[in-house]
Structures are given as C-alpha cells and as structure tokens.
Amino acid sequence: MNAKIKYQFSAETWQHPSPGGWYFISLPTTIATEIRTGLQSEEEGWGRLKAVAKTGKTEWKTAIWFDTKMKTYLLPLKAEIRKKERIIVGKKLQITLWL
Fold first, then answer.
1. Residue 1 falls inside a structural domain
2. Is the pLDDT of residue 2 over 80?
3. Is residue 41 part of a domain?
4. Residue 60: inside a domain, yes or no?
5. Strand ranges (DSSP E) for 16-99?
6. Residue 73, strand partner residues
7. pLDDT tens sequence across 23-45
8. Please, is 48 exposed, middle or buried when counting C-beta atoms within 10 Å of its C-beta (0-12, 13-18, 19+)?
9. What are the residues whose beta carbons fall under 8 Å from the beta carbon of 3, sequence distance 6 or more?
10. Alpha carbon 46 to chain centroid distance?
11. What pTM, to 2 d.p., does this model score?
C-alpha cells in the first residue's frame, strides 16, 4: 500500500475483561466499514492492518485488528502510550490514524 489514508475520530478507551486485559479504542463503525470495504485485501492474518496512530503528542507504529463480534477494528493501546498520554479506561481520545 503506497498512499497513506488518514482518518480522525474520537472514542473512549476500554479494557478487555480478561485478567490483565489489553486496552483498546474501537473505531467508529462508519470508518471501520469504509476501511473494511476498501482495504480488506490488504489485511494480514486475523484481520490485521498496519497503521500509524497518534493521540495527543504521541505517535506510534501499530496495527488495527478487525473484531468480527463487534464488527469494527480495534486499536490496541500499549502501556507505554497510556503512560505518556495518561490514558485510563473511559477516557475519550482524539485519534488520528494513517493506513
């Protein structure tokens, strides 16, 4: 994929209910549908798409994953990112995502 497609949205942080569960941002379904329609052929295993994400002053290389139950992509938030941006469960974040 040559061109980077930019998406901007806001969403609340949530944590998977398993012990020590990961923290995520769910992409809005309208954006997820657009991405899935246009880029599904680019997905790697388990619906993974490489991405660059930014919130606040922090930008990082990551991937989004398609969750078939939730019918949207999930953006994982590593501990390092949460610490830098003081992210807690329920915090609404402004996200910029490049695919």
1. no
2. no
3. yes
4. yes
5. 23-26, 48-55, 58-67, 72-77, 92-98
6. 66
7. 999 999 999 999 999 988 888 88
8. middle
9. none
10. 14
11. 0.91
What CA–CA distances, in Å, run from 7 to 16, 79, 83, 88? Answer: 24, 23, 23, 22
User: In total, how many domains does the chain have?
Assistant: 1
85: amino acid identity, one letter: E
How many helices (H) and strands (E) in the chain?
A: 2, 6
Residue 59 maps to which CATH number? Answer: 2.40.30.100
CB-CB neighbours of 95 under 10 Å: 20
Q: What is the pLDDT of residue 3?
A: 56
Domain that holds residue 26: 6-98
22 phi/psi in degrees, rounded to 5: -65, 160
User: 70: which residues sit within 8 A by CB, 6+ positions away?
Assistant: 26
Residues in the chain: 99
